[in-house]
Amino acid sequence: MTQGRNQITAWLLLLPAVVLLAAFTHVPAVMTLVNSFYNTPRGVRPAKFVGLGHYSDMLSDPVFLAALKNNAIYAIGTVPVAIGLAMLMALIVNSSIRGKALLRMSFFLPTILPMIAVANIWLFFYTPGYGLIDRFLGLFGFAERNWLGDGSTALGSLMVLAVWKEAGFFMIFYLAALQQISPSLSEAAALEGAGRWYFFRRVTFPLLMPTTLFVLINAIINSFRLIDHVIVMTRGGPDNASTLLLYYIYQTAFRFWDTGYAAALTMVLLALLAALAFVQFGILDRRVHYK
């Protein structure tokens, strides 16, 4: 009798969270999937079932293909760099270096800045002629450049901003993980004559794999949900050189008012993120040590 009451109490305690999760996550996802099989209603014209029509249209949509390619480049270019930089910063501030409290604050500061504020700061940095980057490079004789208006540098400029913004956030997780490693391991390694690099490669890095898996999944998700910086800095230009998948979904839904096609694009994005998460778990699970 007591066990039954405990189970009922537990479910009642979980009920608010379950309701909110279903209302704001699962139900919208299911409705988006349903809407992806219908065209967009126009005025008095109701939505009509089009089946996989939206998905087949993507194969011949040059903007979607460009956004998919840009997102792949963006993820490959930002995720490893941000994770590596975060790990390096965590190792630095976890050491006995002087002023590490100031370094921690400096590394973490970009994380607490609002996304729009960060975009506007870097918009000034990239401004041709009088921006900070052109001013600095001008001291060495480099010519002015429109970093955000050039198709060859627009996406790369966003990638630099993303690494600067996210590395400090990921550093916090690595720092917490490093502080959980027993000092006796480094002491034993020192007695055996192991160098710092050998200790990091054989002991520290394997023990950081659970954190790396967590950070990697979050970093890839973040790389596919960027939209604030694109809206403020480039609006996908020039010529879709910096258009990312979520920004294209936003344009399709709220600028072109094609909600059916936007729903199909959203399902492709969700499926892509789910597939990447499963691949990451499959590859890294054998290398993760939780004890």
Care to describe what's here?
The structure is a single chain. The chain is an all-alpha fold and 291 residues long. The protein has a domain at 53-114 and 159-287: MetI-like (MetI-like fold), CATH 1.10.3720. 71% of the residues lie in helices and 0% in strands. It is built from 13 helices and no strands. Helix 3 (62-93) packs antiparallel against helix 4 and helix 3 packs parallel to helix 7 (154-179). The chain crosses the membrane at residues 12-34, 72-93, 105-125, 154-178, 199-221, 261-284. Keywords: Cell membrane, Membrane, Transmembrane, Transmembrane helix, Transport. This is ABC transporter permease.
General form:
globular
Largest sheet: none
User: In the CATH scheme, what's the topology name of the domain at 53-114 and 159-287?
Assistant: MetI-like fold
CATH architecture of the domain at 53-114 and 159-287: Orthogonal Bundle
Chain-averaged pLDDT: 86
Low-confidence stretches: none
Number of helices: 13
- Strand percentage lies at under 5%
Distance between the termini: 38 Å
Series of H and E elements: HHHHHHHHHHHHH
Structural class: mainly alpha
Seen as an oligomer or otherwise, the chain set is single chain
CATH class group of the domain at 53-114 and 159-287? Mainly Alpha
Q: State the helicity in percent bands.
A: over 70%
Radius of gyration (CA) equals: 24 Å
According to DSSP, the number of beta strands is 0
Protein name: ABC transporter permease
GO biological process, one term: transmembrane transport
Membrane topology: Multi-pass membrane protein
InterPro entries: ABC_transporter_permease, MetI-like, MetI-like_sf
